[in-house]
Amino acid sequence: MINSLARTLRIVIAVGFVATSTTTLFAQKLTTIVAFGDSTTAVRGNLKTYSRFLQTGLSRSDVPVRIVNAGIGGNNTQHARARFEKDVLSHDPDVVIIQFGINDAAVDVWKTPPATQPRIALKEYETNLRHFITELRKRNVKVILMTPNPLRWTPKMLEMYGKPPYLPEEKDGFNVLLREYSEAVRKIAKAEDVQLVDIDRAFDEFGKANGESVDDLLLDGIHPNERGHRLIADALVSLLAPEKPPLKKPVSKKTTLSHPDQWQNAAEAELITDMTLCTPADALSDRRHHDKWKVFEYETADFSGKCVSIGRESSAPDLTLKLGKKGWHAVYIGLSSITDLVRPAKNNVEAKFTSDPAYTRLTNRQDLAARRRDVLEEVFLGVVDLTDNDLQFSTVHQMPARIHYVKTIPLNEEEVAALLADRAQTVTKTSVATFDGYTWIHPFRPQNRADLAATFSAYRDSDFKTWWFQLGGADLVHHPSQVGNLMGGHLDTFPRSVDREYVESVRHLHQQGIDPLKVAAEEAHAQNAEFFVCLRAAGWKAAPPWEEFFMSDFYEAHPEWRCIDHDGTPTMHLSYAAEEVQDHLIEVYREALKCGADGAGFLFHRGMPMILWEEPFCQRFIKEFGEDPRKLAEDDPRVFQLRAKIVTEFIRKIRAVLDETAATRDDPKKRLKLAVSTFSTPADNKNFGLDVERWIEEDLIDQIGIAWFAYYTSGLRTKTGDTPYYAKITEGTNVKIFPFYVGWKMKSAEVLQQSVARDYDHGADGIAVWDPNQFVKWESGKHPYWPLVSKLGHRQQVRNGSLIYTPVTTPLTRLGENHYSRWYPNTGF
Q1: Number of helices and strands (H, E) in the chain?
Q2: Cα–Cα 20 to 30 A to 17, which of 300, 346, 763, 827?
Q3: Would you call 59 helix, strand, or coil by DSSP?
């Protein structure tokens, strides 16, 4: 079948595309395509029509599109003229695909008395098609004509149309008039110089292949079935999708620009190297104090100045630096590496423009230079109109930092226009960011809403417009809850200091009436991002020494529902074969959705198992199959079958609570989406009961994150997921797929660029990054992280490597009394 479809596609392209003009579309601009036709175009129940395949096919070919299906059953071109303004022109289309003819050419011989002429005469049919072309060209709309698909006799069609002028005794006798209308479409396409997709010939050629028939492409002798619609869509995608440029190979520093060098006025950059210009002046000191920024004189080979420094225990106040600029500028902060006596240490500082709603956290991720010399890194803060806009700095809990300079580069009008257009468009905003329920709090010890908001500030102008926000573990949460419980909420002694900081921070926020989950949802919506509340499959309880920190009260109360291995060994997981476990988590969802979330997520890869051989599963197995699964082989197919059935029942419950919640919202028709993380391959999914194809078929889910980094799966070995498989099973549906990358496990910028481009080539709708804010450093290379990761939805730039920048680094030659030399001063400590 695959070979015959491929052969037919080559034929339809060869014989059908007769015009010299091009309709090729390009990324970064949303293109509206109207599919204008009769019942062969129109939506037909759950049938995947060519318009649905076209939506996914073009979107996954780097062409962001909005497809409008304007097909209506029974329509001929005269009907179409009457609704042309309302159903086509009102959508302000870029491209219109026109396919009529079956109802025009039909002779209603089944009527009493029988008709003797077509419903629409051939000349009138031609006039109507030319009318559409003329009106669309006036609006500079691209036109694609398609010939109607051929018909085949069925018993019903023979009963209705088996009379002259039709030839019921001939295989092709239902098409005696329709062929004339198809030929008219070809002539008009050539005369009007518009593009043609010759579906009539394509279906016929398909039927000539060994073992194939035109009937294999039709539902009922008239309307294309899924295979037929797929053939039509493939032809249209081949016509409309641009040829992808070759994937740029890993780039070198010699051929890569630095981030500041991308601006036309980079040579006009101004450097402020004296940080004692910051106010208030009494927040600065030449000595270390917990409530002061210490001032150091410093020198490099190219410039010198005065920097400000804070240590881990600092409680210094915020600083303001007056910039005195007007107009749009790119702004960079020169941050220093921090030496932990003999090696680089983590460092962090918060910066914002006075016009920003929240601080953004910045860090220097460079290694020390030779002889343990500190290195300055130029970190991009943002592009902003600096008119009446200044710069502010703040400390980060338990993080040292040293600010050496500020660089400003003026932008020209074209750059500003391009920047604002990029911020306003939505076609590249296809990336998914995950946030766990723990590490967005414990390193930063937030004390108020502004501290929480700082986690999300960097996402403002990024492509991350879907946030999968985890509440904690299974039912472990950080919001005030009547269903779940706070991790370690009952403890007064903790495994680690960060665990204490987490609990004390959340308690403090709750006491102030601040709900961290609600703040996160509000910040997402302020950035026009979708916000999903997500639960993990596991996370009920951890092994010592975290056995009382990561501990679910529900888990503790119900030892009877814990998972039991095949050999009788108990585990620290709860079984989803127990209805009560499922229902408990549904109530967690119901409560969390009150924050105004746009959907929910369930993350299977954190983690398995959900179902083993515990009593609830075994009793159900015995009821369904009459045997005790503990006496069968672990890989008995019925074990996998029942697991899949139970997990699907749980997914249906999540879908139901989402639909129930949606019904209570201001817009009850707006669907609340369901995201799931799945495993690398179908075999991995089968092992743990993930019947993803059924979930798609039942319209239960909306987004899939392909998570290779899941214990007990093949992904841990291959380090990748089967993106082509997921693209295939979601083709022609509304389900989006997102291969996962891990923020704290990035090999290099070049490898990321190559891998993401390949995933797009394999059909990914976007990219998901697990913990993008937890990046530490590349395993190799020092390219800036956020300018690349924040723009992974920009497919063209990913492909051409232009998001990989050379870091701007400057070694220090002196810091205070330390003249960096071959004699390192800390050797005595």
Answers
A1: 24, 32
A2: 763
A3: helix
Q: Give the number of C-alpha atoms closer than 13 A to the C-alpha of residue 624, restricted to the C-beta side.
A: 14
Angle, helix 199-208 to helix 2-16, in steps of 10 degrees: 140
Q: Report residue 459 CA to chain centroid gap.
A: 14
What is the token pair recorded at 772? 């993008």
CA-closest candidate to residue 107, choices 41, 181, 44: 181
- Structure tokens given for 362: 């910045």
Count of CB atoms situated within 10 Å of the CB of 704: 24
Distance from the first to the final alpha carbon of the chain: 74
| Sheet containing 142-146, strands listed edge to edge, beginning at the edge strand earlier in sequence | 65-71, 31-37, 95-99, 142-146, 195-197
C-alpha 670: how far from chain center:
20
Please state the φ and ψ torsions of residue 465, each to the nearest 5 degrees: -115, 15
Distance CA 350, CA 346 (A): 14
Question: How far apart are alpha carbons 664 and 643 in whole angstroms?
Answer: 33
607 prior amide bond cis, ω within 30: yes
Rounded mean pLDDT for each run of 10 residues along the chain, 829 residues in total? 45 41 53 97 94 93 91 97 97 97 96 95 98 97 97 95 95 95 97 96 90 93 96 93 65 68 97 98 96 98 98 95 97 96 91 97 94 95 97 96 98 96 94 94 92 96 97 95 95 94 96 97 98 97 95 97 98 98 98 98 97 98 97 97 98 98 96 98 98 98 97 95 97 96 94 96 97 90 95 94 95 96 87
User: For residue 52, which amino acid is it?
Assistant: R
Task: Classify the C-alpha dihedral 273-279-281-287 as positive or negative.
Answer: negative
In the β-sheet with 319-321, what is the strand arrangement from edge to edge?
A: 319-321, 391-394, 349-353, 360-362
Which of 182, 159, 175, 139 is closest to 34 using CA atoms?
A: 139
Judge contact between 453 and 517, C-beta under 8 A: no
What 8-state DSSP symbol labels residue 533? E
Are β-strands 349-353 and 360-362 bridged in parallel, bridged antiparallel, or unpaired?
Answer: antiparallel
Tell me, rounded to whole angstroms, the distance of Cα 346 from its chain centroid.
30
Are 703 and 764 in contact, with CB atoms under 8 Å apart? no
